From TrEMBL:
PANTHER family to which the protein is assigned, alphabetical: N-ACETYL-D-GLUCOSAMINE KINASE
Protein name (Swiss-Prot/TrEMBL): N-acetylglucosamine kinase
Keywords: Kinase, Transferase
Domain ATPase BadF/BadG/BcrA/BcrD type intervals: 6-254
Highest taxon of the lineage: Bacteria
InterPro entries with a match to the protein in the record: ATPase_BadF (IPR002731), ATPase_NBD (IPR043129), Euk-type_GlcNAc_Kinase (IPR052519)
Keyword Cell membrane among record annotations: no
Keyword Membrane: no
MF-aspect GO terms: kinase activity
SUPFAM superfamilies attached to this UniProt entry: Actin-like ATPase domain
Classification of source organism: Bacteria, Pseudomonadati, Pseudomonadota, Gammaproteobacteria, Enterobacterales
Length: 292
């Protein structure tokens, strides 16, 4: 019997799965809890296992069908060497399983398997380039050390700037005044909030920053321009490895495009597919190399 293709997109917010037959016909889709194998390995593996179970249940397939299933899992945090070592012990029932990062399967989906690059800019950021034979990864080391061009970094800069303006170290603007007003114009309130803030919390001010920039706010404009410059710095080495094709993905992909230099914007292409379509494509390619 022909192989089944199972793709997993495991991210920090949720885990998604897709099951198809060898001709690409959709059999089932499922969604589960967070699956970042760096931050919560055991919980991530449990979430992935539940999604796989749900896929076979939805498709009304017997347990034996797993023995002819090719799994490609793209997992947030799988770029960390120690995590890769732990993942070697994850051996779900299947014909074969292949592990990637979530950004690698996003790259395969965005360019339908052809050479190209992606830069994912949401709460965090990470890039990947595919030259036709190998992936190159850039970034993806977390809010404290990395995530250039991301919503979390942009939001943190906005709040830092608002505090500077509140203390009259730099001139205030309508944006900085609104930001501080949301913390009762109290540096202490901002400090208390910051002690527990997650990257997603820092990023919540981003829509307000973009709106201010569109209205010509001096600080809003400078913040968005700095975010765009960070993205340019990250995508240039990706472009050099990807035959010049770049897809931006994530929540900031659309609003930032108008702020990118013309030469970079001219190289952007729309994603042809999502991360799960990339995982299924890779699974199909790998299935052709397996013994009959």
């Amino acid at each position: 019997m022909q192989s089944l293709m199972l793709g997993i997109d495991g991210g920090g917010t949720h885990c998604r799965g897709r099951l198809t037959d060898s001709a690409g016909r959709l059999l089932a889709e499922a969604k589960g809890g967070p699956a970042n194998v760096w931050s919560q390995f055991d919980a991530a593996i449990a979430a992935i296992g539940q999604v796989i179970d749900d896929l076979f249940t939805q498709a009304n397939l017997p347990a034996e069908a797993r023995d002819r299933t090719v799994i490609v899992a793209g997992l947030a945090g799988a770029n960390v060497a120690s995590v890769q070592t732990r993942l070697a012990s994850w051996q779900p029932r299947c014909q074969a399983r292949y592990l990637f990062t979530d950004v690698e399967i996003a790259c395969a989906g965005a360019h339908a398997g052809a050479p190209g690059a992606v830069f994912i800019i949401g709460t965090g950021s990470q890039g990947a380039a595919w030259d036709g034979a190998h992936f190159t990864l850039l970034g993806g080391w977390g809010f404290a050390l990395s995530d250039a061009g991301s919503g979390a970094i942009l939001g943190q800069r906005a709040l830092r700037l608002a505090l500077l303006a509140h203390e009259e170290i730099v001139p205030a603007s309508a944006l900085t005044q609104r930001v501080m007003a949301s913390y009762q114009n109290s540096p202490e309130q901002l400090l208390i909030w910051s002690k527990q803030a997650t990257p997603a919390d820092w990023g919540r001010v981003v829509p307000e920053v973009f709106a201010a920039a569109q209205q010509g706010d001096e600080h809003g404009t400078a913040l968005v321009q700095q975010c765009a410059a960070d993205i340019v710095q990250m995508v240039q080495p990706l472009l050099a490895r990807s035959h010049g094709k770049l897809a931006l993905m994530g929540g900031l992909a659309e609003p930032i495009q108008a702020w990118l230099p013309a030469d970079i914007a001219a190289l952007l292409v729309p994603p042809q597919g999502d991360a799960l379509s990339g995982a299924i494509r890779l699974a199909t390619q790998f299935s052709l190399t397996l013994p009959a």
